[in-house]
Design a protein that fits this description.
about 200 residues, mainly beta, 2 helices, about 5% helix, Glycolipid-bd_prot_put
């Protein structure tokens, strides 16, 4: 483990904050851990950019005892309007999506995790749930993928390849928007996601 990783182990609850490499966005999240269970309340603030209008988004996440997402509520504000989205996974691993158009139900190929574009926090969910930050392994996982600021939800696949915490190599990630190598702290939360954001 590097000195940087050692220094980032946190007492819980903790507030984790990331800044985009181009300074166009920030994310700050209050995280509570109980074993593998995570409760998080966070906010993303984004300036206008080529890929998006200026917006702010707040979220409230709860996982089950295995670290799989149980419920995510999102609220987005931009110049034209406010929008809300609620995602909940039931015991049959079906997802109930509630938004301004009503309710839909989908399996998302058995996804247990939610990923939110622009957010380094959400990448920690599958990394912690599968224990990738502690061991050498490769996984390819379906996720319920949320786009911001439009709050659309679709199925996507993200692959992670970890050479283990002592390799110094980070975790290779391949997602719908990136192919890069991320680094995580001793608790599995993102330190640096090249092209997206770095923890400050």
């Amino acid at each position: 483990m590097s000195a940087a990783n050692d220094a980032t182990e946190s007492a819980w609850p903790a507030i984790l904050t990331w800044r985009a490499h181009d300074d166009s966005r920030m994310e700050s999240t209050r995280v509570q851990l109980s074993g593998n269970r995570i409760k998080a309340y966070g906010r993303i603030v984004a300036a206008a950019a080529a890929t998006n209008p200026a917006f702010s988004a707040s979220y409230d996440l709860v996982t089950d005892e295995s670290g799989a997402t149980k419920r995510l509520s999102l609220s987005v504000t931009h110049a034209e309007r406010d929008r809300q989205l609620s995602i909940a996974r039931d015991e049959e691993n079906m997802w109930l999506i509630t938004d301004h158009q009503g309710q839909t139900r989908a399996a998302y190929e058995g996804a247990l995790d939610v990923d939110v574009v622009f957010s380094p926090f959400f990448n920690a969910l599958p990394i912690r749930r599968t224990g990738l930050y502690r061991r050498t392994d490769s996984v390819n996982l379906p996720v319920a993928y949320v786009s911001l600021p439009d709050l659309t939800v679709k199925q996507a696949s993200i692959s992670y390849n970890s050479l283990g915490p002592d390799s110094g190599e980070g975790i290779k990630l391949h997602s719908p928007v990136a192919q890069t190598t991320i680094t995580v702290d001793n608790d599995g939360f993102i330190l640096d996601y090249p092209g997206l954001a770095k923890r400050i």
